[in-house]
Amino acid sequence: MAMAEQGAKPVWKWVGAGAVLAAAGAVAWYARERLAEEPRFRLVEEDGDIELRDYPALLVAETIAPGTRQPALSEGFRRLAGFIRGGSQREGKIAMTAPVLAAAVPGGWRTRFVMPAARGRASLPAPPSGIAIASLPERRVAAIRFGGVPDDARLAGREAVLRNWMHRRGLIALGDAEHAFYNSPAIPGPLRRSEVLIPTG
User: Fold this and answer.
1) Is 0.70 surpassed by the pTM of this model?
2) d(Cα 199, Cα 188) in Å, to the nearest integer?
3) In terms of domains, do 11 and 105 share one?
4) Full domain range(s) for residue 90
Protein backbone atom coordinates (compact mmCIF):
# COMPACT_ATOMS: atom_id res chain seq x y z
CA MET A 1 0.00 0.00 0.00
CA ALA A 2 2.86 2.33 0.90
CA MET A 3 4.43 1.65 -2.50
CA ALA A 4 1.17 2.53 -4.27
CA GLU A 5 0.90 5.79 -2.37
CA GLN A 6 4.53 6.60 -3.10
CA GLY A 7 3.99 5.96 -6.80
CA ALA A 8 0.92 8.20 -6.81
CA LYS A 9 2.80 11.24 -5.53
CA PRO A 10 4.44 12.12 -8.87
CA VAL A 11 1.03 11.92 -10.57
CA TRP A 12 -0.52 14.38 -8.13
CA LYS A 13 2.57 16.54 -8.41
CA TRP A 14 2.06 16.86 -12.18
CA VAL A 15 -1.68 17.46 -11.74
CA GLY A 16 -0.93 20.24 -9.29
CA ALA A 17 1.66 21.76 -11.60
CA GLY A 18 -0.81 21.63 -14.48
CA ALA A 19 -3.44 23.43 -12.41
CA VAL A 20 -0.96 26.16 -11.48
CA LEU A 21 0.05 26.64 -15.12
CA ALA A 22 -3.60 26.78 -16.21
CA ALA A 23 -4.36 29.39 -13.56
CA ALA A 24 -1.32 31.43 -14.57
CA GLY A 25 -2.37 31.26 -18.20
CA ALA A 26 -5.88 32.46 -17.34
CA VAL A 27 -4.47 35.38 -15.35
CA ALA A 28 -2.16 36.36 -18.23
CA TRP A 29 -5.05 36.15 -20.71
CA TYR A 30 -7.25 38.24 -18.37
CA ALA A 31 -4.53 40.89 -18.09
CA ARG A 32 -4.21 41.07 -21.88
CA GLU A 33 -7.97 41.43 -22.32
CA ARG A 34 -8.03 44.26 -19.78
CA LEU A 35 -5.71 46.20 -22.10
CA ALA A 36 -7.99 45.85 -25.14
CA GLU A 37 -9.30 49.11 -26.60
CA GLU A 38 -12.92 49.88 -25.67
CA PRO A 39 -15.28 52.40 -27.31
CA ARG A 40 -15.34 55.74 -25.53
CA PHE A 41 -18.68 57.04 -24.29
CA ARG A 42 -20.10 59.94 -22.27
CA LEU A 43 -21.61 58.88 -18.95
CA VAL A 44 -25.03 60.53 -18.59
CA GLU A 45 -26.21 58.83 -15.40
CA GLU A 46 -25.00 56.10 -13.05
CA ASP A 47 -27.18 54.13 -10.65
CA GLY A 48 -25.33 51.19 -9.11
CA ASP A 49 -24.65 48.66 -11.86
CA ILE A 50 -26.77 50.60 -14.36
CA GLU A 51 -25.51 53.41 -16.57
CA LEU A 52 -26.99 55.70 -19.20
CA ARG A 53 -24.35 56.29 -21.89
CA ASP A 54 -23.93 58.33 -25.05
CA TYR A 55 -21.81 56.55 -27.68
CA PRO A 56 -20.32 58.20 -30.76
CA ALA A 57 -20.68 56.65 -34.20
CA LEU A 58 -18.86 53.31 -34.34
CA LEU A 59 -17.50 51.19 -37.17
CA VAL A 60 -18.10 47.46 -36.74
CA ALA A 61 -17.53 44.19 -38.56
CA GLU A 62 -20.57 41.97 -38.23
CA THR A 63 -21.82 38.55 -39.21
CA ILE A 64 -25.00 36.54 -38.68
CA ALA A 65 -24.92 32.84 -37.87
CA PRO A 66 -28.01 30.61 -37.65
CA GLY A 67 -29.04 28.58 -34.64
CA THR A 68 -29.31 29.01 -30.90
CA ARG A 69 -27.26 31.56 -28.98
CA GLN A 70 -24.10 29.74 -27.94
CA PRO A 71 -23.37 27.81 -31.17
CA ALA A 72 -24.25 30.85 -33.30
CA LEU A 73 -22.01 33.17 -31.28
CA SER A 74 -19.12 30.71 -31.40
CA GLU A 75 -19.42 30.56 -35.18
CA GLY A 76 -19.75 34.33 -35.44
CA PHE A 77 -16.68 34.87 -33.27
CA ARG A 78 -14.69 32.38 -35.36
CA ARG A 79 -15.55 34.18 -38.59
CA LEU A 80 -14.76 37.66 -37.27
CA ALA A 81 -11.54 36.56 -35.56
CA GLY A 82 -10.38 35.09 -38.87
CA PHE A 83 -11.19 38.38 -40.61
CA ILE A 84 -9.25 40.67 -38.25
CA ARG A 85 -6.25 38.33 -38.21
CA GLY A 86 -6.13 37.84 -41.95
CA GLY A 87 -5.65 41.34 -43.33
CA SER A 88 -3.26 41.78 -46.22
CA GLN A 89 0.28 42.98 -45.58
CA ARG A 90 -0.59 46.45 -46.87
CA GLU A 91 -3.66 46.82 -44.69
CA GLY A 92 -2.25 45.05 -41.65
CA LYS A 93 -4.05 43.01 -39.08
CA ILE A 94 -6.82 44.61 -37.06
CA ALA A 95 -6.38 44.83 -33.29
CA MET A 96 -8.93 43.01 -31.15
CA THR A 97 -11.15 45.34 -29.14
CA ALA A 98 -13.71 44.83 -26.40
CA PRO A 99 -16.54 44.16 -26.01
CA VAL A 100 -17.84 41.61 -28.49
CA LEU A 101 -21.46 42.57 -29.21
CA ALA A 102 -24.21 40.03 -29.81
CA ALA A 103 -27.94 40.28 -30.49
CA ALA A 104 -30.71 37.93 -31.49
CA VAL A 105 -32.02 38.24 -35.06
CA PRO A 106 -34.63 36.16 -36.88
CA GLY A 107 -33.26 32.63 -37.21
CA GLY A 108 -29.96 33.23 -35.46
CA TRP A 109 -27.59 35.67 -33.78
CA ARG A 110 -25.58 38.66 -35.00
CA THR A 111 -22.02 39.07 -33.68
CA ARG A 112 -20.12 42.36 -33.95
CA PHE A 113 -16.49 43.38 -33.43
CA VAL A 114 -15.98 47.12 -32.92
CA MET A 115 -13.16 48.40 -35.11
CA PRO A 116 -10.30 50.34 -33.44
CA ALA A 117 -10.90 54.09 -33.36
CA ALA A 118 -7.81 54.70 -35.50
CA ARG A 119 -9.10 52.50 -38.35
CA GLY A 120 -11.39 54.07 -40.91
CA ARG A 121 -13.47 52.11 -43.39
CA ALA A 122 -10.95 52.73 -46.19
CA SER A 123 -8.11 51.23 -44.13
CA LEU A 124 -9.87 47.91 -43.55
CA PRO A 125 -9.36 44.83 -45.72
CA ALA A 126 -12.27 43.78 -47.90
CA PRO A 127 -14.44 41.45 -45.80
CA PRO A 128 -15.13 37.94 -47.07
CA SER A 129 -18.60 36.65 -47.89
CA GLY A 130 -20.76 36.53 -44.77
CA ILE A 131 -19.09 39.49 -43.05
CA ALA A 132 -20.12 43.13 -43.48
CA ILE A 133 -18.60 46.43 -42.37
CA ALA A 134 -21.33 48.63 -40.87
CA SER A 135 -21.49 52.12 -39.38
CA LEU A 136 -23.49 52.49 -36.19
CA PRO A 137 -24.85 56.01 -35.67
CA GLU A 138 -24.46 57.97 -32.46
CA ARG A 139 -26.78 56.52 -29.86
CA ARG A 140 -27.80 56.59 -26.20
CA VAL A 141 -28.00 53.25 -24.43
CA ALA A 142 -28.99 52.02 -21.01
CA ALA A 143 -26.46 49.45 -19.78
CA ILE A 144 -26.34 47.06 -16.86
CA ARG A 145 -23.04 45.48 -15.78
CA PHE A 146 -22.67 42.06 -14.17
CA GLY A 147 -20.11 39.35 -13.49
CA GLY A 148 -20.17 35.58 -13.67
CA VAL A 149 -20.83 33.27 -16.60
CA PRO A 150 -23.25 35.06 -18.97
CA ASP A 151 -25.66 32.18 -19.52
CA ASP A 152 -29.20 32.53 -20.85
CA ALA A 153 -30.79 32.83 -17.40
CA ARG A 154 -28.39 35.53 -16.18
CA LEU A 155 -28.71 37.54 -19.39
CA ALA A 156 -32.52 37.39 -19.25
CA GLY A 157 -32.54 38.34 -15.57
CA ARG A 158 -30.27 41.35 -16.07
CA GLU A 159 -32.31 42.49 -19.07
CA ALA A 160 -35.48 42.37 -16.96
CA VAL A 161 -33.86 44.48 -14.23
CA LEU A 162 -32.66 47.00 -16.82
CA ARG A 163 -36.05 47.26 -18.51
CA ASN A 164 -37.72 47.82 -15.14
CA TRP A 165 -35.22 50.59 -14.36
CA MET A 166 -35.94 52.22 -17.72
CA HIS A 167 -39.70 51.96 -17.17
CA ARG A 168 -39.46 53.72 -13.81
CA ARG A 169 -37.63 56.62 -15.49
CA GLY A 170 -39.91 56.83 -18.48
CA LEU A 171 -37.20 55.73 -20.91
CA ILE A 172 -38.45 54.07 -24.09
CA ALA A 173 -36.51 51.21 -25.69
CA LEU A 174 -35.69 52.11 -29.30
CA GLY A 175 -34.47 48.67 -30.26
CA ASP A 176 -33.78 45.16 -29.05
CA ALA A 177 -31.33 44.29 -26.29
CA GLU A 178 -27.70 43.67 -27.19
CA HIS A 179 -25.18 41.69 -25.13
CA ALA A 180 -21.64 42.94 -24.56
CA PHE A 181 -18.94 40.42 -23.60
CA TYR A 182 -15.58 41.74 -22.41
CA ASN A 183 -13.86 38.41 -21.73
CA SER A 184 -13.28 35.09 -23.47
CA PRO A 185 -14.68 31.79 -22.11
CA ALA A 186 -11.14 30.98 -20.94
CA ILE A 187 -11.54 33.50 -18.11
CA PRO A 188 -13.03 32.13 -14.85
CA GLY A 189 -16.63 33.18 -14.23
CA PRO A 190 -15.94 35.44 -11.21
CA LEU A 191 -13.52 37.52 -13.30
CA ARG A 192 -15.77 37.96 -16.32
CA ARG A 193 -17.47 41.23 -17.18
CA SER A 194 -20.60 41.39 -19.30
CA GLU A 195 -23.37 43.88 -20.00
CA VAL A 196 -26.85 44.11 -21.44
CA LEU A 197 -27.39 47.22 -23.58
CA ILE A 198 -30.73 48.68 -24.68
CA PRO A 199 -30.88 51.70 -27.03
CA THR A 200 -33.04 54.54 -25.78
CA GLY A 201 -33.72 58.21 -26.43
Assistant:
1) yes
2) 29
3) no
4) 42-200
